[in-house]
# Entry
Amino acid sequence: MPKTKLAKRIFFIVFGAILMGVGIEEFLVPNRILDGGIVGVSIILAHLTGWRLGLFIFLLNIPFFFIGYKQIGKTFALSTLLGITVLSLTTTLLHDVPVFTEDLLLATVFGGIVLGTGVGIVIRYGGSLDGTEIMAILANKKLPFSVGEIIMFFNIFIFGTAGFVFGWDRAMYSILAYFIAFKMIDIVIAGLDESKSAWIISDYASDIGEAILARLGRGVTYLQGEGAYTGDNKKVIFCVITRLEEAKLKSIVEEHDPSAFLAFANISEVRGGRFKKRDIH
# Structure
């Protein structure tokens, strides 16, 4: 891996882990609100024993570092170890720092946002801050449940335990914080500048393709297709656009062929090729 790329990965994993630590220690834990996964278990154990949260986060995740090393690879395992180490140190250093807010709703919302953003950044750059997913992948091989279902069952157990330890109102706030964090992870991983792929099947494919090039400044690719029902050969247009260009593309297709088949799909990342927008004169 080139040094610049490695430095970028390390920077963002450290930054993401620090963000998660801020979300945990400055919003959630002081207000007795939990996160899910191994971090949630660590918060409960730290509360019951009086020991530092960072110690439990590090110790409970260490087994998953070795499992990840064997199952997923060296780069993932080392990235995860770096993230977990920084997260543990951050929660320890921030333990005595005054809390940002004692308002439960604000702590839940902003704690979820900050935490989810941090986790999303770390995942996007090839690491992990919680061993729950690795545990679920291994359990999935022996149990008749999907990875998502195993994680859901595990978190239901954690939030149920939180109800007995911290009170049921805190358990409900914890579920809300977890949901917000989960959505933020999706946003960060997918990116705010989400792209869309468009598939267009029309008898006027050449005219539509030229119009997309001229009016949207986007490149198009022609594919050859065959109708299963009619057996006719069809020219299929494939192109990638941004969300803001979707309405314009629809109007272009409508102008040339109102009966054209048009399908869109979300794309989280685009690399290579000639996706960069051309100038429109």
Remarks:
- The first strand starts at residue 195 and ends at 201.
- The radius of gyration is 24 Å.
- The mean pLDDT is 85.
